[in-house]
Sequence to fold (257 residues):
Amino acid sequence: MSQRKRLSASQSKAANRSKAESDDEEDAFTQPSLSQVQRAKESFTPIQIDRKVAEVVQFILIKDQRKIPIRRADIAKHVIKEYRAIHQDIMKRVIHTFDQVFGLKLVEIDPKSHLYILVNKLDALPEEPVSLIPANPKHGLLFTILSVIFMKGGVVKEALVWGFLKKLRVDPGERHDIFGDVKKLVTDEFVRQKYLEYVRIPHTEPMEFELRWGVRADKEINKMKLLEIVGKLFDQEPTSWTQQYREATAAGSQSQR
Fold:
């Protein structure tokens, strides 16, 4: 089989799988009628509903450890199950629990596919951002890459990122003692976690790719604090970078709405 046919077959399988997952989700989250909701509420005791809310919270916390977006269909299939008629009430209480108990915000990053992530509501101290804690070397690498992208206007060719990392003795062409396969970490793991977007540049031969911030990074990373950190590194005020300062200010205003 030629490479083109194999690619076509692979894309067809992926499309069918995606459609099946979508169909499963539609089945699981068909809007119930008022009578169905009422019957469901009468079928379960308050204690049972409390327990189900706790199970959903626990499921999301466990899933979030891998930093892979959580599908609403998976919540329905593995946890909510027979409680689907009152899933809206359950999810409202789940969101409230994350907000009040854990200081976390459950955010829907893709309304079409219904993907969720947990975002820490508590701002890190400017001098000690979560992403730079030594115990989290992968987050430190990610923060560095996000900083380069942000300071370069929001999109950079991957070659520029690899060149920058080499200066830090992190060579994507060699296996790293801490990060392992650096290129796979950046272009696969960070992309699946929605921290980065890895996009092919059209009409390039050989193929070239560029990196951008992903939706999770936009939700989790405080751009103004990132700019303040960069300013400290270069001994300059954040206002020295007009475009970045304007973007960071706008992002801060949107997050407060």
